Amino acid sequence: MAQLLSTCFYSNLSSGATSCSKPSTRCSALHPTSLTLRISQSPIKKLVSHRESSQRERPTRRSYNIIVAALPVSQEANTQPSNGSHLTPKESSKRKRVMIIGGDGYCGWATALHLSKMNYEVAIVDSLVRRLFDHQLGLGSLTPIASIHERIRCWKSLTGKDIELYIGDICDFEFLTETFKSFEPDTVVHFGEQRSAPYSMIDRSRAVFTQHNNVIGTLNVLFAIKEFREDCHLVKLGTMGEYGTPNIDIEEGYITITHNGRTDTLPYPKQGASFYHLSKVHDSNNIAFTCKAWGIRATDLNQGVVYGVRTDETEMHEALCNRLDYDAVFGTALNRFCVQAAVGHPLTVYGKGGQTRGYLDIRDTVQCVELAIANPAEPGEFRVFNQFTEQFSVNELAALVTKAGEKIGLDVSTLSVPNPRVEAEEHYYNAKHTKLVELGLKPHILSDSLLDSLLNFAVQYKDRVDRKQIMPSVSWKKTGAKPKTVAA
């Protein structure tokens, strides 16, 4: 078994409290490993430690990330008891191998557990840089989240199922090459991108990081598939934000146009509204091109805004609890509103509140990814699925949260704040989303009971909320060239 790569800088950042909904009980298989060292020149080092050489230093001086190699978690836990069943080597060899890039994140962690439960052989690839962002900006999840190592060991202890772990930066092609050769994926699920529009608009350095990390990382994945796993299916998380808000219906990836008497089916026009959204547009173009040029098979999941925190798998133990962001940089609309209601803060409606988007429950995110894996694209095919279940305006969400909050005794008010973004605040919006339903998606609709559950969850953890992080602090029009720190 090849060694797993683990960045020693992040080892101190990935730990956290493990309480989620029950008194603390620790999973088994939590024991140290032996370590060796290797060197990597990852672009993430620029975010981790930026140190300029003085004129007195030699011109050849260079800085490095030190990477730690440890035994795979699956080997560490082999001697530990579990209450799950073990597969025979013959059974294991038939399981589809799924590599989840960004598997420590909000959508990635829930997806990794779900696919493992559904008997896929799963590997998580992650640089853990999302945890670093919290430390840099003074942010934190509403929920206490365990380290990735403890999460995986707990899953092994509870289910008997292994999740392999590779910690490193996919912008480092040497690391990605070793990972591909070691795991040999049948499918790559790519969540591993900086996913916040506000983060990409803080300053020049964050804008550059977002586009470099997202575009170069995805290019590396495409080259790795071409060189090492040419039949591998890429399932890439895109965003509905690629489309913008056109005054016509939004199709699923392509539109048929008749112009001057001639007709063609073309990629749907893209109008990304931040450096983050534009990075996703560049990704889509690169993936489409490599499908045509190299015969790669790919599915682009243009996902709407995700809400919720619980899935069947994350509910199994406190150490498996998912993160929930409520701040103005990484928090999404409905999650933020529920947390604001729980602590008695007015719901922050940006501008006129007519901004309309597609939304989906996190349980539907994992369901959609599973459907895409089970029904792969053909070689050379670039599919686009619009991944959401319902459409809401910001005002509609605020009204729903207000009504649900009042039912459980919360005094919920709404506050219109100046819109920090550059966007239409009243517009037409009608996006198609039929392809995943045709594959068998059974959506979780935003019901009163679901809102009640999410609000009560927020109330449970309201003592962890930093109210200073609620109001928006990143302005699209004030994005500057000099590095900035979001006000704490």
UniProtKB/TrEMBL annotation:
Write down the Gene3D superfamilies for this protein, in alphabetical order. NAD(P)-binding Rossmann-like Domain, UDP-galactose 4-epimerase, domain 1
- SUPFAM superfamilies for the chain: NAD(P)-binding Rossmann-fold domains (SSF51735)
**Record-stated family:** Belongs to the NAD(P)-dependent epimerase/dehydratase family.
Checking Pfam families in the record gives:
Epimerase
Origin, by domain of life?
Answer: Eukaryota
Q: Where is the NAD-dependent epimerase/dehydratase domain?
A: 98-386
The protein's name: NAD-dependent epimerase/dehydratase domain-containing protein
Q: Which residues form a coiled coil?
A: none
